[in-house]
Write a structure and sequence with these properties.
The protein is an alpha+beta fold. It is built from 16 helices and 24 strands. Helix 12 links the parallel strand 17 and strand 18.
Length: 553
């Protein structure tokens, strides 16, 4: 066995340390703002943008769920305030000479109820990701574990999977093949402890829907969860590093409208806003310049894209030329400048600030989508190929919710396609974000807008999505050459070879087959109450906003 060295997360984390100034007031009936350093203790208010339907770490499938889960459960490693991976739930690890077996020695840690965190709990958490009964969308990501795919497909039993608790303090994970970036992957919500006693029988599929039936191994615990309203986190006194946790409470009200979030921030009812748009940045600029409001900017390895159902029952989006026509018809620069008003236009899938080894992928690989073809001509060619030449075409765009910002974006896409392609676009609205995710995962849509945030700092976290059969393959894309290229990159240790394979695969999914239409790369402006310090904004892995090291002055 050999010890593997610590890895550095390059350009992944923006860290904030600010000075103390007079705090904001509070308003009756609203969430308590920061500045409460006696009585209720140090409190921060940070909005939820979606209403989680469950907080099961094994099934956490969006950024909001992961934000909460990763504050209340402990990963094996964790980013510190300087953006470096440090040992967390594990105190050390070793890898075998062949790179297949990773052995983690756990530190002493207790759950919120005072019971010991054990290696079997970490094993149960990861095994549940692969358990077909649980139905985790992220199962495909963890097929790298020995017999993980076979277990997920019902071909072998749980005991044959390469995840074992050797003893109470030793977790052993055996891989199908060496993974050069595996240490970054265990900074995931999917590798957090869940006691098996909480997931027996029918509890296996309902775990995570009732906070009172969960235990917490991380810096915070869920004190209150009111569906459709708020989540309240409080400090976990049993956490192994509780001495470093200075916040007592994190209030997380559900606030989906941008205007409402901005008003609450200005009134001192919210302390942090992430990814503000350009208009609001200009409004706050004087306060930022004077130090009254703190600005932190960071490049996020995240993207958004138009997702076409490549298995469209109506047949329209089964054709690559039609998909590409819809992609090229979108004016991305105008979308950024006039509609979305944040982030950067995307013509590829892999965002800036994503590393392939020591190289930032986007610095050396040109984006594959080149808007040089006539989208109208492509549409006509595609319609001819599917036997609908000259027909009036109507498609349905599924939007994720009914808030105004979502409506404005949907209407922009509608206008672009109707104006440039001459098609009719109907807009349908999902009742809430959970329903939207369910519809998309079942293929119950024609075209929609979605996105992905990196689970770890490597192109694979984005490219894995479009492998045939992956649980997060929202476009239901399938291409044998793409699959071959991407899967060969899992264990490829030559970064130059890997780069060329990712380059070719990205061209297939974006330019040749146009399975999706890239829209934006994450480029975030975040603003904060200037009394809050020690916050870090993570790009890949860990919670989007890390509160473990935060404090209030």
């Amino acid at each position: 066995m050999k010890k593997t060295s610590k890895v550095l997360a390059i350009l992944m984390t923006a860290v904030l340390t600010v000075s103390s100034l007079t705090g904001c007031g509070t308003s009756g009936g609203r969430p308590t703002s920061t500045g409460e350093t006696s009585g209720q203790g140090a409190i921060v208010s940070f909005p939820m943008t979606t209403d989680p339907d469950n907080l099961d770490a094994s099934r956490a499938d969006d950024m909001q769920k992961n934000q909460i889960v990763l504050e209340v459960q402990e990963t094996l490693v964790r980013f510190d305030e300087n953006g470096e991976l440090q040992m967390a739930g594990a105190e050390s690890y070793k890898t075998s000479e062949d790179g297949l077996t990773w052995t983690f020695k756990l530190r002493d840690n207790k759950y919120s109820d005072g019971t010991e965190v054990k290696a079997a709990d970490y094993a149960n958490g990861l095994l549940r990701v692969l358990d077909p009964e649980v139905g985790s969308h992220d199962a495909g990501t963890w097929y790298i574990v020995k017999n993980g795919e076979a277990y997920n497909n019902g071909k072998v039993g749980r005991e044959e999977v390469g995840v074992k608790a050797v003893d109470d303090k030793t977790l052993e994970i055996t891989l199908e093949q060496p993974i050069p970036y595996f240490l970054q992957m265990v900074n995931s919500s999917k590798v957090t402890p869940i006691p098996e006693s909480h997931t027996q029988g029918s509890d296996n599929t309902t775990y995570g829907t009732d906070a009172t039936k969960m235990v917490y191994s991380g810096p915070f615990q869920i004190a209150e969860w009111t569906r459709g309203s708020k989540v309240v986190l409080t400090k976990n006194p049993n956490y192994w590093d509780a001495v470093s946790v200075q916040l007592d409470t994190i209030n997380m009200p559900l606030v989906q409208e941008e205007n409402t979030k901005q008003q609450m921030f200005e009134q001192g009812e919210l302390d942090i806003l992430t990814e503000i748009n350009s208009e609001y940045y200009e409004k706050l600029k004087d306060k930022i310049d004077s130090g009254e409001v703190t600005l932190v900017e960071n490049s996020k390895p995240s993207n958004s894209y138009i997702c076409f159902n490549n298995q469209d029952p109506n047949g329209i989006f089964t054709n690559a030329k039609i998909r590409k026509a819809f992609s090229l018809a979108i004016d991305r620069e105008t979308y950024i400048d006039k509609v979305y008003k944040k982030d950067a236009p995307a013509y590829g899938i892999i965002p800036p600030a994503t590393n392939n080894g020591d190289t930032i992928f986007r610095d050396v690989v040109e984006e594959p989508l080149q808007p040089t073809e006539d989208p109208k001509a492509l549409l006509e060619e595609g319609l001819k190929e599917i036997g609908k030449e000259g027909e009036n075409i109507e498609v349905t765009f599924l939007q994720g919710n009914s808030d105004n910002a979502t409506k404005v974006k949907s209407e922009y896409f509608q206008n672009q396609w109707e104006t440039k392609l001459g098609v009719k676009v109907k807009i349908d609205t999902a009742s809430d974000s959970a329903t939207f995710n369910q519809q998309v995962s079942k293929g119950d849509y024609q075209v929609c807008s979605t996105g992905w945030g990196a689970d770890y700092n490597d192109p694979m976290t984005f490219m894995q999505l479009y492998v045939t059969g992956d649980g997060n393959n929202a476009p239901f894309f399938s291409n044998e050459k793409y699959d071959e290229l991407v899967t060969s990159c899992i264990s490829e240790s030559n970064m130059a070879v890997r780069q060329e394979k990712f380059k070719e695969a990205e061209k297939i999914v974006v330019e040749e087959e146009a399975a999706v239409a890239p829209l934006t790369y994450g480029l975030a402006k975040n603003v904060m109450n200037n009394k809050v310090k020690g916050i870090s904004f993570n790009g890949a892995g860990g919670p989007t906003v890390e509160f473990k090291t935060a404090s209030v002055e």
